[in-house]
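pinging the channel bc i need a second pair of eyes. not urgent but kinda urgent?? the chain im working w is below, pasted from the shared doc
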Amino acid sequence: DVYKRQGKLNANQAPDTQISVEAINLFGDDRLNTIVRLSWYGADPDGYVVGYEISFDQQNWSYTTKQDSTFKFSINSGSDTTDVDFYIRSIDNENLADPEPDYLKIPIKNTPPSISFDDKLTIPDTAFLVGTTSWSANDIDGIETITQVLLSINGNTWFELNKSKKTFSLVPFDAISSDTTSAYLYYEGDQNPTNQRIEGLIVNDTNRLYIKAIDQAGTESKIDTSNVFFLKGKKEDILVVGGIAGNARTIYKNTLDNIMVNYDFLDMLAYNGLYRPKIWNITFRLQLEQYDKLFFYSNESLFNNDYSSLSAMLLEFAAASLQGYANSGGKYLISTNFNHNQNIDGFVGVLPIASVSTKNYGSARLYQGDSIVSSLPNYPSLSSNLTLSGVGVYNIDSADTEVIYEANVVDRRPTTPWTDTKIIASGRRVGGKFNQVYFGMQLWELYEKPARLDSLFNQVLNVEFN
């Protein structure tokens, strides 16, 4: 009051600052991890606090209006503990800073990373030529602190993986071997393997994978292990992929035996779909690359893929892989059928087919006898000993596709003539010979005269594809 009567003002007083925690007395394994939440407050005796400045060295300060924050501290490489110096000072409404910032020593420690194989993308108990799996890792200190991810096959030498690519496939260098060999490593959908092979894969025997992560402090995660899986190897240069049970498999086996074709068989129905890939355009594509020729048969049945949550025909799942296979020089014969109202966009262009019949070809019928005919030499007429309904005739793109067979279809209504396409088989050529042959029906149903079916398979597999 005396100063006021004399016309003088009190000098501005500095604010005071307090960190909510006075001290952190933790040692050894009890230290905090690198993510720490702190809070603070300030008071000013003759004004009010407008903000705070934070520093870790009392030289460089950063301004904030908040009274709490979560900090992510780092630890120098090669060390697993450190002490962080934390300073904070209040700033009042006249921009005066607390001359004695509050201080806290924060004892932190590095947290080991963690890593595991993806439970949804495990290699099945029995794998055919290719093992595809994935991994995920985490670190409380931040995923960026993980510096290495290492893989070992059967406890052999650790191999450093690309941290940015989580899904990978292993393919034996010597697929015919029944012994330990090295493995090609493919990342995700890459067309080519890595330059370096991984040692220790055993063909036609059981295998187990090991994986671990290492962070910037050199701390290793616990090692995770895959399930044990048997890796089936290759025997022949022709692959037969089956998607139909019963008579189809028996008839095709007899036919291929009759023309002296040895083959490896991949049964897509066996053991509740054990061999059906979870990621087709990785696993199936790599399987196909091991073979010169392919015979693929299936039907209109839909199958669920638990990994992708998609439901589709086997031919739809396989389409992208078949395209890559043909582009790289592979030769295929495919026999399948589908309902007239099924969407075939997934394999139009991949197969030598452009569109299905514009009529409801559920009414297209074949009677017993020589009902499948070709104008090409060495392609015998084919017939069934049954009346077949719903024959899958279709249209082609004449620019790159050639008709191989037409079907003498009739309408199931006797008084109605069949006026639409009759194409039932088509193909594409490379160097004058077919390298892609597609039948829009089940070849095994054309078994009335077995010798003719044998002749067809011989012409395609042993002549055209040779």
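so The first strand starts at residue 16 and ends at 19. and Confidence is low (pLDDT under 50) at residues 1-5. — does that match what u expected or am i reading it wrong
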